[in-house]
Task: structure prediction
Amino acid sequence: MTQAGPGRTYGLPVTTTALVTDSTSYLPPGLADALGITVVSMHVVLDGRSVPEVELDPAEFYRRLRAGATPTTSHPAPGEFLQAYDAAGAERVLCVTAAAALSGSHQSALLAAGMTDLPVDVVDSGTIGGGLCLVVLETARGLAAGASHDETLALATSLGDRVVSTWSSDTTALLAAGGRLPDDVPEGIAVFALDRGQVRVLGAARSVEESIDFQVDVIRPAAAQSPTRVTVGHGDAAELADALVEALSGVDGVLGIDRYVTGPVVAAHAGAGNVGASYLRAAG
Result:
């Protein structure tokens, strides 16, 4: 395994197009390894020290978050993306980043694209976390199936337009502190959606169990209309994620479920106890 700055390069085969993303994709390690994806790390500032996200243990991070830690986050510098591009071992690079509306990662990736002799296309996924995970995995699967660079670029762009994420969390305080909490949050356990870089409120549940049902009810008609793979993730809420996976496994149109753990950068805003799913709505 080779390294790309503080991020990671998974997989060894040399391909015409290398796929790069940032660490808020939270890719399942086995799938990332099989699909040959380079990950450039975001950074978390904790106790006055900046640490690459990929070097933090999520369980320990959530323990500290629940104990009152107030981390901040920062995106990779252009040089970190540049190092990943040049080390990718391919003729061309496709970089899929977290939403430009939510992170400076996209701008850094664009700046780095102008600093290398390699042709680099940078796609704003319009999402982060599980949504970015889904976009990157589906893009990588297309590339592995033999899609050309242009076909893969078109696929990644279209997926960014279609991906929707839902989630709930123990707290909305961190979203509020970061200025990302919508004004119309109801009483109870709020259920949110992230769609094209915008956070909106779907409704509220009276219990965590009801919040799981709420998310399933959102995804069910979308999957029936357009079959989709789904990603399910959590932050220190494994039992809730298990329940969400079990419920979604019985939904018509759900083609498969990839699981991940919500990492420190997203958790610094979503809070501990978060659980959610991402899916692809019908095109058009």
In short: The first helix runs from residue 29 to 35. The longest strand covers residues 198-205. Residues 1-14 have pLDDT under 50 and may be disordered.
